[in-house]
Amino acid sequence: MSLHHLNDALVRPRSARPGHGRYPRLAGLATATLVLAACGGGGGGGGEDDPAAAEAFPEGDITFVVPFSAGGPTDTVTRLVAEPIAEELGANIVVQNVEGAGGTIAAGEVAAANPDGYTVLMHHIGMSTAPSLYPDLPYAPLEDFEPLGLVTQVPMTIVARSDFEPQTMEELVTYLEENAEDVTLANAGIGAASHLCGLLLQDALGVELTEVPYEGTGPALTDLVAGEVDLMCDQTTNTTGQIQAGEIKAYAVTTPERVETLPDLPTTEEAGLEELQVGVWHGFYVPAGTPEGIREELSAAILSSLEDENVISQLGELGAAPFSQEEATPEAHRQLLEEQIELWQPIIEEAGVAAD
Ligand code: MLT
Q1: 193 lines ligand 1 (CB under 6 A)
Q2: Which mutation among 66, 68, 104 tests ligand 1's pocket best, with the greatest number of atoms within 8 A of CB?
């Protein structure tokens, strides 16, 4: 099986569904930002059968851990929904970025956190690919986490520094075929959506570019705008503003349909690369063992945030959309995660891609 099949793994998360160790508690946390102040106090307690803890929840700040840099696409989506979730729960939400290793450092830390509902992981498709990419992964996505619900689906764009020579997707293909060894391709680490999309692009063209890993596509985009790297495949939630402002060049959107906010951008299929179709899904997780009552409260708040008008309109402006209420449940989230893990495993094995 070739990398072309990554297409099925990433696109159409809804219909396609085709598709341990212990750490110190969040010891490596980077910057923290308080999203909304609604109450005071402190978390604690927990345990699977702890009705008292569930009854009292939330009585302190809740931390949303983002596994990539601040200002990037995962961070943007998290902060957007954090506000209505905080309102719904009547709690402060602190967003913390724990970067590195394609999101696996953050996931490892949350897997080992106290299962009390006060530490919540946001993650994307990387949750399903990490077991196949990281031989020493210190957590198992299905055993060490409880999915709380899906949030959004985001198309990707193929973008370049504004003075990159090719003007169209067709020209880009020819240019990469002729100059592959001179072209740098930014990504957010092994297993990041940008990495997976970049693999697809290289596989589709049969070329090998020089990959430049960052801790998130937020800083990668800054370097792209500055002309420090040539090319990137990134989510519309990160690239739309810079494309519209002409700060970067865009070649194609990697979804079957054009994106309303970038109407002039052809799909990869229109540009003759129908196998290069990529979409990214995001969801929230708590460590396994978090009491059911607490999980239910968090999931209900997440679901309700997806109906928030500001969330819907801001996601829309960035070319994305929330999952529907039926698609976003914890059960649907677990099912999608299971399917995606199964789908990716043989593809990644065959592709021979792995972290050191
Ligand atoms: C980020 O937030 O930086 C991205 O989601 C990285 C990626 O997956 O490409």
Answers
A1: yes
A2: 68
